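Table S5 (text form). Sequence records supplied for joint modeling of the two-component complex.
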Amino acid sequence: MDALIVIFLTGLIGLFVGMLKKPMLNLLVTMIGLVLAFFLQLNNGLYTSPLAKYQVLEFNISQLYFSLLAIAFCMLIVLAGYQYFKRDAIHTGDYYGLLLFSLCGAICLIGFTDLFMFFLGLEILSIPIYVMVGIKKQDVLSAEASIKYFFTGAFATAILLFGIALLYGATGSFNLVEIRGIIQSGEYQPTFLFIGILFILGAFLFKVGAVPFHFWGPDVYQGAPEIVTAFMATVVKLAALLAFFKLFNGTFQDLAYFWIGALYFAIILSLFVGYLGALKQTKFKRLLAYSSISNTGYALFALLSLSNSAIGSLWIFLVGYGCATIALLTISMAIHNENDEISSFKGIGYKNPFIGFIMIISLLSLAGIPPLTGFFGKFALLMNAYPQHLYLVILALISSAIGAFLYLRLIVLSLSKDTDTESVAMSSWHYIVLGICAVGILGAWLVVAI
Amino acid sequence: MNAIDPTFATSIDFYVILASILFVIGAFGVLIRRNMIVLLMCIELMLNAVNLLLVAFSTYYGKGDAQIFVFFIIVVAAAEATIGLSILIMAYRNNKATDAGLFKNLNG
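The corresponding structure-token record, covering 558 residues in total, follows.
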């Protein structure tokens, strides 16, 4: 709760500091606010906050770790974006402010105990992103991505709200614990409840970007600036997945026989549509968007366990996925990949060995090669689902092989000789971000070992 | 279940049907219309159908919390309309049209 207030105030201050046109000062204020919020959340996150009295926002220990991860990702993105916004944009202050407001929404979405807070968190998360996607006002692609994201997002919100209204009609409550009690006692109106759950499921699949509601993802990821793409692919996905987990694995757990079939369908399609779609892409951000669809499919395995046991593996998976995604997008920014072609990465391992190294471990981690974090996350998620869902795990392994082919192709590209052997220089901010990402990719398995 | 208003119990279905019809009209509008201002209006219609449904259920259960939720939805709908219109203006400056079908640069 304290962290939420600090982040919000930092965002407000950032908006005003932005008027001074001093990007460095803005970065400093934002980073101080985020670090403060991180430690406040670490210390006080579990204590009863003033608002928890009304049962809208509460963190348990696993949700606390997810909120810390969201804040940490946001810090990385802010650092990585400094150079970009110093060079390209006049809206530095707006960008920092909107990013932090969106992070507030993500934290609400991680800690909600009530459908009020859930809905508000989702909107606080989404509305700043509609703006941030279109932050390059003169760019046709950015405007198009913004329009597409706004209309699909608002449509999903309306569907989610209809689901919530029907859920209220069936149970007469917005509180998650009460709703679960009513579902267990069987005193509900079944038609409204089942239709409501279907609507909510659809809206969630949209928000996490799983097939069949993934169509907006590649377009929006491609059109948005790299920084916003990184935010959408990590923080937004993390918050939406955790809310999904909490609502379906917690509140609707006793109705699993009803929704698990639809989830099966979504997972299988996500696993294959993502990687198969990525194979024919030539734009880097578009490729990353398709690969993130498949990664969402893996993350959704956490919901199949129908208990809290999978939450740790989901965390590890998201650390690996998030660090790798942020690293890859930072590299794309660092080499000034304006036209977003994959071929710009050709020979990057020779031009700058550090970038080449980070790129290779990020891609290997996404592909799930053993000593890296991505492997442990995927392994733990699949092991959790393995006893009951054998066929799904086999399908996931097949899709993983397609993914490995996709990522290895990029590695080969980054190591092949290029005619142009001019070395690539990078700002120190990008070195810091890539270094931290490398620690996340190489070292998070230590957490598992401990 | 909570206390149910006896005068209301027989007629809740009509409210649900009315709200569903409004919602479906809005959803169809979003799916088939191409003018983006009309799309915005259709989304507003969907949100208002939800408001109607929530108010009906609130009276049905004799509880006020759903009516508070309606206020939140109205606020969020206003924020969304503001953002939506400003994004529309930005897109119009780039494209000189409000036709959603003209946005074809991103595909593949």
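Note: The radius of gyration of chain A is 21 Å.
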